[in-house]
Amino acid sequence: MAAIDRIRRELKRSYRRLKKHGGWRAVGDVHGITGGMAYKIAVYGQEPKDPHIRLVLGLPAMAPAPVCERCGVVHVRRRCPAARRARRWRDLPVDVLRAAIETRSDFDMPPELRDMVSSPRVKRQRADNEL
Question: Residue 67: which of 53, 80, 82 has the closest Cα?
Answer without folding.
Answer: 80
